[in-house]
Amino acid sequence: MNIEMALSQAKFYIRQNQKEPARGILGQIIREDPNNSEAWILSAQVSDELEQVLYCLQRAAKIDPRALETHPNAPQIRAIISRLKEPPSPAPSTLPAQPVASAGTGLPGSQETGMSAAPALRPEDSLATIEQKVPQSGLEKKPVPQKRTARPAARPALKKKSLRPLIVVLMMLAALAVGGIFFGDQLRAMLFPAGTSATSIPTAMPTVTIRGTQVSTIDGMIMVLVPAGNFTMGSNPGDLMTLCSQYYDDCNMDWFTAEEPVHTVHLDAYWIDQTEVTNGMYAKCVQAGACQPPSDPSSSTRTSYYGDPQYADYPVIYVNQSDARAYCAWTGRRLPTEAEWEKAARGENGYTYPWGNSVPACSLANFLGSNGAACAGDTTAVGGYPAGTSPYGALDMAGNVWEWMADWYAPAYYGSSPSSNPTGPGSGQSYVLRGGSWLYDGYNLRSAKRGAGVPSLRSDNLGFRCVLTAP
Predict the structure, then answer these.
(1) Which of residues 377 and 190 earns the better pLDDT score?
(2) Closest by Cα among 270, 274, 269 to 221
(3) pLDDT in tens, 393-414
């Protein structure tokens, strides 16, 4: 798992008030890196119980004594420092829940993640009551043997300086409980004041609703759920002519026939990879003997790309359709149909782009501007454009690299395609490509745009992602 990318995604879900996927990602981060103070602080933000908030903040402060001292409300917190004693060490019962196998998800080698909750304090509780309740919730001190009259020798290892944030947090929560004025979301509003998170998502983006997440234990890929239901597929030629004229002088209605007619498609529920498969993930398949290495280890501007640790979180390129299919099979997943890909990208309502109908910008995707100026001029790390997230929470569905589909390409297929779970023609000469890339303009980033590539095609702007049918 890429910790930095996962933290970025957790913050994005928090800004969207999507607590469940944030908890799942943070739980995975903490299991991989239990000393990540930022993950503990974010876990406090999405916890629904006061004692769970306290525990997460305690862990953060033990890891990094400065983590809470630098908080915007540090002066108010320090003001009550003398009112409580040293907080006790938490018992294992309040740790984030250990991973459990997904029940009924049908995901081989995957798991759903979450955070456990503890009993809440009541607003009317007195300080004495709070001190009685805290031990009952698993935060009690370990008993000291009767024969010892002094602290165990190991206790002084926690220096006074490192205990200050812990003392501060317990005091603050006790004071808030006695006052009875900040609980639940109000407490988090004080701990995490407005303006301290990352930049807000542009209003042009449709509402992002994360219906569920899973993390593969095979390759570490985060997947988001696309629920069963109908969506609008294809494009109206008249609308495309208007859009095309913003990019080209010689637009022709014949260019758009492959995307018509606009039609309603029903799809069963499925999980889709949140990002494109990365170099680091693909290397695991190569090491396992299930995949062939990319045909070229470079990228457009880098002589060393695949196999270079600094690009482990960038999309794998120079893989053909067979390579992509083999990787997905190795993980227990498969390549998406173009209908599955399009729904995950544009949502049920037929948005032009994953973020809505506003024109592409370099803050939304990695592509080639209409004036020929490149946003990056090569691939970028996956998940680097959270403002361009699709309605279901999928990232990089526009730009960065084109993506292989499972379907054979036929320009007239929409005229006879089934209305439920279409899988494309039975044969063909090329496979469908979707999503545009860093080398293509904004017109080609459209979620309904259909590209095509021969099965053997390998390119510096072509990659893939996988899907899994939900039970």
Answers:
(1) 377
(2) 274
(3) 999 999 999 999 999 999 999 9
Q: Is residue 152 predicted with pLDDT exceeding 50? A: no
| Tokens read off for 165 | 């944030």
Angle (CA) 17-22-27 rounded to 5° is 155
DSSP run (H or E) holding 68: helix 66-69
Instruction: Give how many domains the chain has, as a whole number.
Output: 2
Encoded tokens for 223: 């997947």
Q: How many helices (H) and strands (E) does the chain have?
A: 13, 12
Residue 318 C-alpha from the chain's centroid: 25
My answer on whether omega of the bond before 99 falls inside 30° of 0, hence cis, is no
What is the rounded CA–CA span in Å between residue 154 and residue 24? 34
Residues spanned by the domain of 108: 3-191
Say if residue 183 is in the same domain as residue 272: no
Specify whether the CB–CB gap between 352 and 346 falls below 8 A.
yes
Cβ atoms of 307 and 375 within 8 Å: the answer is no
Residue 434 and residue 72: Cα distance in Å, rounded? 44
Do 231 and 179 lie in one domain? The reply is no
- pLDDT-based confidence at residue 16 (cuts at 50, 70, 90): low
77 neighbors 57 (Cβ within 8 angstroms): no
**What pLDDT is recorded for position 18?**
67
The Cα-based distances of 328 to 96, 195, 465 in angstroms read 30, 40, 8
172 with 291, same domain?
no
Distance of CA 395 to the CA centre of its chain: 8
- CA-CA distances (angstroms) from residue 92 to 59, 97, 137? 12, 10, 11
Report the alpha-carbon distance of residue 212 to residue 271 in Å, rounded: 9
Write down the pLDDT at residue 38. 83
Candidate from 32-41, 268-277, 329-338, 445-454 with smallest mean pLDDT: 32-41
pLDDT (0 to 100) of residue 102? 33
Predicted pLDDT of residue 130 = 34
Burial class of 204 by CB neighbour count within 10 A (0 to 12, 13 to 18, 19+): middle
Which distant-in-sequence residues (6+ apart) come within 8 Å of 82 by Cβ?
none
